[in-house]
Amino acid sequence: MAMFVVELVYGADEELRLRVRPAHREYCRGLAERGVLLAGGPFADQLGAQLVYAVADADELREILDADPYTEAGVIAKTTIREWQLVTGAWL
Predict the structure, then answer these.
(1) Which domains, and CATH codes, for the chain?
(2) CB 10: neighbour CB atoms within 10 A?
(3) Which residue in 20, 92, 13 sits closest to 54, CA to CA?
(4) Which residues contact 4 (CB under 8 A, 6 or more apart)?
(5) Other CB atoms closer than 10 Å to residue 6's CB: what's the count?
(6) Distance between CA atoms of 69 and 89, rounded to whole angstroms?
(7) Of 68, 83, 79, 80, residue with least CA distance to 4
(8) What is the pLDDT confidence band of residue 92, given thresholds at 50, 70 and 90?
(9) Is 13 helix (H, G, I), strand (E, B) or coil?
């Protein structure tokens, strides 16, 4: 199992993002229930979000991100993906 930290930067269309947000959050809840999404949420400034995923590999993560309602609606201006090696903390 690989872990990835994903940083999202929202686009300028806040109205669209707020309209799509319930579908995005429902999608994320489903991933969390399956143990795929370990943590996620918006930054306090509401300009983006950070999410932590546990998946088989980068291909699986890309499929998950591509199916996110935010991605499908074009809400995301930028996505940064970093594989993460967890070595300490409560998740171990």
Answers:
(1) 2-84 (3.30.70.1060)
(2) 19
(3) 92
(4) 52, 53, 55, 58, 61, 81, 82, 83, 84
(5) 20
(6) 31
(7) 83
(8) confident
(9) coil
Taking the C-alpha atoms of residue 78 and residue 26, their distance in angstroms, rounded to an integer, is 21
**Quick one: how far is CA 59 from the chain centroid?**
15
The widest CA-to-CA distance across the chain, in whole angstroms, is 39
Q: What is the pLDDT of residue 91?
A: 82
Residue 28 is predicted with a pLDDT of 98
| Total number of residues shown for the chain | 92
The amino acid at residue 79 is T
Q: Which tokens sit at 29?
A: 């809840």
- What does pTM read for this prediction? 0.94
